[in-house]
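hi support,

uploading two proteins for the ticket. first:
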Amino acid sequence: MSDWLILSFFPLVIIALVAVLNAFTFPRLHPIDKLQATPFVSILIPMRNESLRVRETVRSLLAQDYPNFEVILLDDQSEDGSAAVAQAVAEGDLRLKVCSGAPLPNGWLGKNWACHQAAQHAQGDYLLFSDADVRWHPQALSTLVAEALCTKADLLTCWPTQETITWGERLTVPLMAFTILAYLPVLAVHYLPFRVFSAAMGQCLLFRRKAYEQIGGHVAVRQRVVEDMAFAYAIKGAGLRLRACDANGLLQTRMYVNWQEVRDGFAKNILAGHGNSIFLLLFSTVFHWWLFVIPWILAISQLSWKYAICGVLGVLTRSLTAVISRQRARDALLLPLSVILMTIIAVQSIRQRWRGWSEWKGRPIAT
C-alpha cells in the first residue's frame, strides 16, 4: 500500500521537470542596444481610482527611450482625481492623452469596457494594454517591441516582476509564476497549435493591431473576468502567433498591499481561471493539498523519508520558479501555508458564486 501511495505523488516529478525545462527556455527580456524598426505603439491603460499609483506609472512611461509611442489613459469614472494627478505628472507632454470614460453599459465588465474605449482612441500599429500600477524601466518598451518584432508575435504577453512585501502577498502572489512555470511548458505555448497550451498576463499584452481587430478586440471578451486568457485562446484559435516572456525586472508592479486585497483580488479571478467550474476548482484544491501538504503530514506522522522527499521536491520546484521570476526562494519553505491560503480564497470565490455576485473597485461583478 505504501508503494502505491508514493506513486500517487508522481505528478510532482512532472511538475519539477516542466519547471526545469522552463528555467532554460522561458524567454526573459534584456535591454537592447539598437532597434531595427520603431513601429508606432499605443500604450493603453484603464484607470479607476488609481491616484496613489498612477503618478509613478506615468512618470516611468514618459521616460521610455523608445522614440515612437503614445500613452492613452482611460479614466474609468474615477472619484479620487486620478486624471488630474496623471496630467500634472505629464507637465504638458503631448504623448500623454487622458480620456474620460463613458458609463458602464450592460453586458460589459469595467476593465474590458475601459480598454475597449482606449483602443478607439489609439493610432498605433501595435496596441499595448497595461495597468495603472505597472512601472517601466526606461528601456522596457524598446525591449518589448524588439521581442515582438523578432518573434513575429501577433500577441506578446509579458509577466512583470511582482513586488511582494506583506506575508499575505509573499505567500500567494508568486504562485502565479509558479503556476505558469511549473505547469505549462513555454515551448508548447509557442509552437503547438492547441488552445490548451495558452497563457497570458493582462498586465502586459502587446498586440499587432491587425491581430487584435481580427479576433474581435475587447468586444469579444467583454464579459470575461480573465480576459487575458480569453485573448490567448482566441489568438491560438485564429491560427495567430502567441509568444510569452518574463520581464526580468524591466516591468515591475505591486498588485496588492495586504492580505485582504490579495484574498478579494484572487477570489474575483480564481473560479474564472478554472473555467467557471466549481468542480474543477474543488479538484484543483484537493490536488494541491495532496501534492504539497499531505506529504509533510505523512512524513511526520509515519517518520518516512520517502514522503519527506516528495515534500522537499515540491518546495524545491516552488523555489526554482521563485528564482526564475525574481521572488524570494526562501518563501518556498512555507508552500503548505500558501496552499492553505489559496484554499481560503477558493472558498470565498465559491461563496460568491452561490450568492451570484462579487465586487471589485466599487462595482458588482455577476458570477
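and the second one:
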Amino acid sequence: MFYAHSTVNQSGSNKYWVFGALAVGLFASVVDHGSVIVALPSIAEDLRIELASVQWVVIGFALTISALLLPMGRLADIIGQKRVYVLGSVILMLGAAGAGLAPDSATLLLARIFQGVGAAMTQGTGMAIMTSVFPSSERGRAIGLLMTTVGVGAVAGPAIGGVVVDLVHWRAVFFITIPLGLLGVIATLVVLRRWESSAPGGRAGRALSGFDWPGAALSTGVLVALLLGLTLAVNTGWMSAPILAAFALSAGMFAAFIWWELRAASPMFNLRFFRERVFSCGVSAAFLTFLGQSSVLFLMPFYLQNVLGHSPKVAGLVVMPGALCMAIMGSVSGTLSDKFGWRWFTVGGMVFSTLGLAILTRVTESSSLWEVIPGLIMVNCGMGMFYSPNSSSVLSAVGRESYGVVSGFLNLVRNSANVISLAIATTIVTVTMGSLGFEPSLEAVRNDAVEGVRGAFTAGMRYAFFGLIALVIASMTVSLLQGGAKPAPQPERAAPQPGD
C-alpha cells in the first residue's frame, strides 16, 4: 500500500496555504447548500412541486453523499487524496450548472444527485488533507479552521441566496458558486502541486485493484435502502409494505457488510476501530448531535416565510448571527481542545444547543424575529463548540493512513443523521397537523384560506423540537462517557483475516 506524502506536511506557514486553498472550495460548497435551502419555497412555487416533495432537492443530494462517502474516503486513501478532491470539485461545479439550467423537477433532482457524487469526493477528503498537513498536536485547530470556513459560508449562503432569489431568480443560486469552485480547484492544484498521490504514476491502477468493491456495494446499498425508507415513510406510512421491505433489505445488507468486512483482506472500513471507547463514543455522540439539530434549519425557512410571512431575503438574514457564532466557536473550541482535551467542549456545546432548542419550543405563529434569533444563535454556538473537538477525538484514535476513510465516515455519520433528522421532524409535524384536523403535509401550510393551519404547523414544529432536545441530551451523556484525555494516534491495525 502507498500512502500520501507532501513537502508541505507540517512545514510552518505552508500548512496555512493548504488551508486557504481548501477553504475556497469548501466555502463554495457551503454557500451553495445554504442558498438552496433558502430558495426551496421559490423552487416549489416555480416548478409547481409540493413542499413535501421539494425536500428531495436537499434529501437527494444528502442521500447521495451519505451513500458514497465511505467508498470515496477509502478510494482517496488508495489512489490519492488530491486526485479525488479535485475531481469531486469539478463534478460539483458541473452539477451546479445542470441544476441552474434544469427545466423541470426531475432534471433538477438528477443534477443535485450528480452534485452529491462530487460532494462525497470532497467532504471527507478535504478534512483528511487538512489533518495530514497539521501536526497531531494541532488537529483540533485544523478542524476548527474548517469549521470557521463552514460558518462563514453558512452566514454568506442564506444571505446571498435570499438576495439573489429576491432580485434575480432561484436558478442564479446555483450559478454563483461556480466561479468560487473553479478558483478552489486552481488554488488546490497550485498549492498541492508537490503532494504525491497514494499510488504515484502507474501504480494507482494496481493499488485500485485491491479496492474492496463488495464492501463498497454493500455499504452503499445499506444507506440507500435505509435512507429511502426513512424519507418515503413520511408519505407512504411507516408500516407500509415498501417501507418495511426497504428496512428489511437494509438490515440484511448491513449484516452482510459486517460479515464481509471482518473477513476481507483489505476491508472498506476497519470495524475494529469501534473497540476503542474514544472512537465509538465520539462517533455515537456525533450521530446523536446531528440527528438532534439538522432539521432545525430545514423547518425554519418554511416557518419564517410561510408562517411569519417574511421574504426569502429576511429568512436568510435571520440565520446569519447563529452561523457567525458557529464559525467563531468552531475555531476557538478546536484550538483550545488541543490543550485542554475534548470533554469541556463537546459537553458544553450540547448544553448550548439544548438551551437554544428550549427557546425555539416557545415560538408561535405570531412570534417576532427577536424570539427566534436567540434560539438559532444558541443552537449554532453549540454545534460549533462540539464539532471540532469531537472530530479531533475520533481521528486521534486512528493512524494517519486511515484519515481519508475515517474522515469520510465522520461526514457519512453527519449526512445520514441529517436525512434521518428531516424524516423524523417532518413526520412529527405532519402527524400533529393531521391530529388537529388539517391536511397532514407541509404543503398545507401554504394555504392561507385554511384558518388555523399555520398554528397547527407551528405546534408540530414545537413538538419536533422537544424530541430533538432528548437526542441532544443523549449526545451529551455519550460525550461524558467518552472521556477527555487525548491518546496518541494509534498505528493502523493489521488487515483483518478471515475468521478473526
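thanks. also noticed: The chain has 19 helices and no strands.
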